[in-house]
Structure formats: C-alpha cells, structure tokens
Amino acid sequence: MDGTPTIDVLFKAPGVTLATLFSPEHGIRGLVDAEVGDSRDETTGLQIVSLYGKTRKPTPESLDGLDALVYDIQDVGARFYTYISTLGLVLEAAKEKGIPLFVLDRPNPIGGRAVAGPLRDTEFESFIAHHALPVRHGMTVGELARLFNAERQVGADLRVIACEGWRRGDYYDRTGLTWVNPSPNMRSLTEALLYPGVALLEATNVATGRGTDTPFERVGAPWIEPLAFARALNARALPGVRFVPFRFTPRERQYAGRECGGVQIAVDDWSRFEPVTLGVALAVVLRELYPEEWEPAGFLRLIADRATYEALLEGREVAAIQTLWKAELAEFRKVRARYLIYE
Hints:
Oligomer: single chain
Structural class: alpha/beta
Strand content: 5-15%
C-alpha cells in the first residue's frame, strides 16, 4: 500500500531468507529498457538472475537451495506484455524443481471484465504470445497462473495470494494504490489502457510515442499527413476516443530525431473505449491511406492471428474484422471462467 517494493519487505521480514532475485524484462525494479544481464541488486546486495537475456526460464541450477519461488510483478492486461510469459515459464520451472510457486496477485489495471481481440494462433507461440489468449485477456496474474497451470497441464504446486478488495470492474484508479511504472514507457493508467491497441503497431514502421513524454498516446510517421489521418480515424466514430492532428519528433527508434505527422489519441469515455478496436482501426486506416508507405508485416507478429491479418490486407473494415473473433472469444470466456478469483 505504501509503495515499498516487495523485495525490500521480504528482505527485512523475520523468518524469511530472501536468497536470489530473478529479473524479467525491464529489470528487477522495472527501470531498464534493454536486454537484462545477471547482476547484483544495489539495495539488498542479492544476486540477480536475468530471465530476459540468454535464458528466459530459471535453470534447475539457479533454483538450487530454494524452498519456494515468489512471483510479484505488475502486469498491464495485454497478451504481448512479457511479464505473463515469464510467469508461465517460472511456473514450469517450479514444477520441474519440485518447489511451490507463490503468486502475489495484483489488480489488472485496465479492468477484469472486457476481453478483446483474436486468440493467438498455434504457430505464433513465442515470448510475446506464451498462451492462446486474446490480446486483452481481462485476467490478473493470479488467475492467469491458475489457467496456465491447468490448461497447459503444468501441474505445479501453485499458491495464489489474492488481492483484498479488488473488483473485476475496477480500473487502477479505483484501487487507491499509487501508480508505479511497471516498465519505463508505461507511465500512466491512460498509457496502459491504450497499450493493447497502439502496441499492435510497434513492430511496423510507425512511431507509437516511445521517445516522447507520452508513449502510446500518439501514432505517426514522417509520411503521414496529420489532418487526413485524423479525419479518417474520426470518421470511424470509435466509441470513447477522438483523434487530434499532431506532429512530434521521437528521440528513439526508427524515426529518432525526425518529425512525424500523426495523431494524439484522446480517450474521453473510458467505459465505452476498447483499445483493441482502436489498434485495428489504426491498421485499417494506415492500409487505406498509405498502402505503399505502411509496412504491415509486423502487425501479424503482434496480432498473432493470420485470419485477422489477411482480412486487413483485403481491406475489410473494423467491424467485419471483429466478427472473426466472436466464436473463439465466446469459447475463451467459458474456459477463463473456471480460473477467475474475483467478482
């Protein structure tokens, strides 16, 4: 509640010996935006074993002498945010070593009711798509751990420590908790809400606000004309969101130091806004207005669904693309319901 990292709490806790730290992407304290190496924690002096470098899964040797593993990482509710892939791999490592995994659950900051987007195709299983989830899964890490353990037939000794007082409909601003950036570019709840949609474009040749003061709140490229782009997006009348013509110059990635035309994204009704719909709309308009300039291949990597990608290339509109997901989302909701903890 007071913002003290769990590492520091456990390190000082009586009757507990904190022996080793395992670092996911962005480092043990969420401050790194590069590959993470093994190191030592400056605060506790403990060894840090990287799970975002040469290995992504704890080795049996790294678990020697441990009585249990504790997973305590803040997720943001999107399939390709890699912390949940780390969760799945740590669960497997705990099972293989024969030690329990304690998951200290945390709220899903963008709520636990809505699910959206296609489920990942089997061929796209990777570190950004560990399990066949929709893009927005609407689950907490504790619930996902339960799902992974059963549906992937891991069978680990899993013990989820549930949140107190969280309700499925609550976004992070309803929790009373202090926002702590879970990664360097996830600086606000607004950015977390936009992320499952805007980040679908990250592997393509557009800037998504990284290297600016508002990551994921703007999209652009040097070849985009802001007025035309904003007009086409606003014409789709997406619920709860507007697009403002905008120019910006990112400080990193493929357009570092180059002025980009694009849009600033303004969410004005959180209850109606759906980020995955936004991401698909951005792709549809880019394909429509800039078929020669926009390179869509990277969109497939993150949407991880070939039918959606092919529909985009064919020029289908947003609503038509969304119908492709209806049956599989209904089936996913049935499976998901077995592992939910909160009402």
